[in-house]
Fold this sequence. Notes:
The chain is of the alpha/beta class. The protein is built from nine helices and 14 strands. It has a single domain, classed as TIM Barrel (Alpha-Beta Barrel). Helix 6 runs parallel beside helix 7. The longest helix is centred in the middle third of the chain and has 11 residues.
Amino acid sequence: MLIPSIDLQGGRIVQLVQGERLALASDDFDGWIAKFADFPKVQLIDLDAAKNQGHNRGLVASICRRLPCRVGGGVRTVEDAVDVLTAGAVKAIVGSRLFRGGAPDVDFAATLAAAAGATRLVAAVDARGGRVVIDGWRTQLGISPADAVRQLEPYFDEFLFTNVDVEGLMRGIDRGAIEAVRAATTRAVTVAGGVTTEDEIAWLDGLGMDAVVGMAIYTGKLKIST
């Protein structure tokens, strides 16, 4: 399944290359919401909150009232996750806070799952150069995404794997990296980063994985339909 993405930064919809360089920005919220209205899942990320540089909570709540969103960015506490869900998110995406001291914080994961429910949470495992990255992709850990997924598997029903190496480049996905994560868990896995073509989406679907698509949709390279 294709899951369109909405990334927020500075009160606008944006697309960044590898989380850094601004490639696109739009104020046309109504237009993009209309394009995504028939999709059963939409990914909504508050980049400012993810980088601890402010937030877009009002926009997040407004979009959640109009689209079935899985929301991430800045979810660092149990209260944050509950607030996101209360604001209308279908699921809360938790990333950097799942790691402490260079390893998965399984105690926090267990507490979070008990409080919010594993079915309403998505564990985000982002990677660059074959290693997990956190803090808005600025800090690299020594653990592989597959190892991280294995350790976090008891606490989440779904993982979001983002490969930063190919994110925003529209040059295709790293199938080997994806297969390693797929083999590490029996849980649902959604893939982001580099997804550009219908063939890639079909390949992921064949592995039972959903595909988050951003840049290819916003540039018109990939035509969307529900």
